[in-house]
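Q:
Just now I want nothing more than another pair of eyes on a protein record. Here is the record:
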Amino acid sequence: MAIEIAPLPVPPTADAAKLKDFGREVKGVNPGSLSPEEFKEVHDLLYKYGALLFRDVVLSPEQQFALTKAFDPTSESYGHGNKKTEGEKKSILHPDLKTIPRVPQVQLIGNGMVYDHEGLAEAKLKHPSHTTFHKTRVSPEDEEKGFTRYYRWHIDAALYDLSPPKVTTLYGVTVPKGERQHVRYDDGTGEELDVPLGTTAFVDGRNMFGILPPELKSVAVRTKVKYAPHPYVWMAPAHALSTGLGIMSEGLEMSYDDLPPWEESKIKVLPMLWKNPVTGELHLQVHPCGVAELIIDPLPAGAKREGALYPDGVHLKDLKEVRELLYKMQRPAIAPSFVYPHDWHERDLVLFHNRGVLHTVVGAFKPDQVRAFHQCNLAASDDPKGPSEEDVKQWA
């Protein structure tokens, strides 16, 4: 049976035209045992569409690791390192991940108590909630009515020492059913999004770049992003914005002197735009919570200076200024019309292009709502490629 693809169901809140090239359901193949020819087809489909869904899949942790690794054959360790989330209990990731003992590259995530699971006698899982990370929160009364928020828009990546994974695979083992929830942006826009319980929300980095006005496209194509050392430890004392798209500038980040030992050479400095290796398209890919500085190159020779921002280049080190510019560039693309909220079913397998999309945990579960997912991504064998000289000339 040949591989078949079908569009993902676009929610009524989304603009179908904006999501026409995002996401496909793949039918006719078993993702746990792809032939080389089938894998090549799946590989190219993923880079073309950003996310692939396989329904009703039986997939072992070993098969999930092998599938993830096939996208980057020399990669070996989990995206944050095997058996650690930066080795630090201070990291905001620490409570969210439990390692599958025999396949340390695969993590168990979810909510509630899970027993006798893939070599784990028991695991207490905690669904990340905006209530512990955002500066403000939805009131308990409104939570009871089903209102919630995005948790944290992000890329799966350590952002220190290790290169950002190319692909993440998410497999729904146990998926609780419940009432739909309503995401509030709570940023003065009045925007809301009706979502399935426990959805994973995605936005396409191509759209994030494509909808920018020319002056911000010029900034994007010229910018490199410098992340903080051990960014998940650094950001842990701080609070996020109500949209989950970055951190409040309150000066609460951990001092570099108090971080675990770090080396300047291991700090990640990455392009703001990451080039798709199959399509050649540019994706605006920034993890806004971990950014410390922006390095913007001057306009190339011959570029039009009128109306240009930072025509002579600049190195922005003021966190508030850095974050405000990033937010201005990223916020339009998380409007409801651009968001794909996946409606999870048990045995769903979703692959997403981690260098081409941003995603976030959404919503909240009650303690007795048990959810168990397997997640795998691998620290890549190289860093993402940025815009070419031709790209810079075109967009700057």
The domain at 14-205+334-377 is CATH 3.60.130 (Double-stranded beta-helix).
